[in-house]
Amino acid sequence: MHRAGEPHPYQGPAEHVGEGYRSAFRDWRRMTDSRATHARAVISRDVGRYCFTPELVPAAMHAIVRERGEGAVEHVLARHLFAHLNFTDALENEVVTPVAYMIARGQTGLRFTDAMIADARKIAVDEMHHALLVSDLALEISRLTGYSAPAPRRPEFLDGLDRLRSEAGAEFTPLIMLFFAVVSETLITATLTRVPGDDRVIGAVRLALREHAEDEARHHAYFAEALMRCWSQLTARQRAIVGPLLPRFITAFLAPSTADVVRSLTDAGFGPAEVSRIIEESYAEHAVAALVRGNAEATIRQMRRAGVFDDARTADAFASAAFCEHGGR
Ligand SMILES: [Fe+2]
Ligand SMILES: [Fe+2]
What we know:
Helix content is 67%, strand content 0%. It is an all-alpha fold and 329 residues long. The protein binds fe (ii) ion (FE2) (2 copies). One fe (ii) ion is lined by residues 92, 127, 130, 212, 216.
């Protein structure tokens, strides 16, 4: 039997290193060994009151909600968490895992090193684990707080992605999926960086988001490298199609869903006039642009490094994106 601290009896094939790619997954088999235990563990029940960091949820910070009392703030934050978990579940299952599998199977039309191909399968496993983690967490939070987890629904960003795919044509679908995954995986959102350290937030949430953030740090390194390699392999025609979509991917991924906010507030007992006012005042175009810009910094930095802004059409598309003050140049 395998004991903690001892080398795992099956270490898998030797890890590939080479062609300038340094794998961030060298310890991966040992980490996944402990993961199964964690997935079944009873999640910590320490007593944060909130399901999310209030400062990351403009609706919860609005005076109308705060004046209604702590119960209303808690309710809106719980609905926000459920929306985040639903979003993550769909992203992992419908975008990142299929893309990682496409890379592993050599179906992107682009070249990856052997080591990156091997790591892509590990990323697919990680993402399926995250999907499991978030669906477990929704049930756990529902039990702990008494707010019932809503039925899964298709997040709007997937409809947006469908529209972009059909505009570009089937020929570009693999590249669009790949670059959408690159954008989502190189973003470092405040959700993953701030919530785990916020002791006002329920322990189960912090624990799950911390675990997710640790895996995503590795994925970030992988997809930053993938961006460098893939962008340089694109033909001029491919760049002309994919490049201008990049700022739209960022917006689709990061702009808060108004429909989710409406559902949260309505569920928390706010009437239509109050909901409209909160949305108008907390999700105005400039506020959303600032929020998107703040969360997109890491991705834009990686894009600049990869030479994405050297393509004139792409640079123009960024320049006219609402979230880019200076066009990312
Ligand atoms: Fe993930
Ligand atoms: Fe990931």
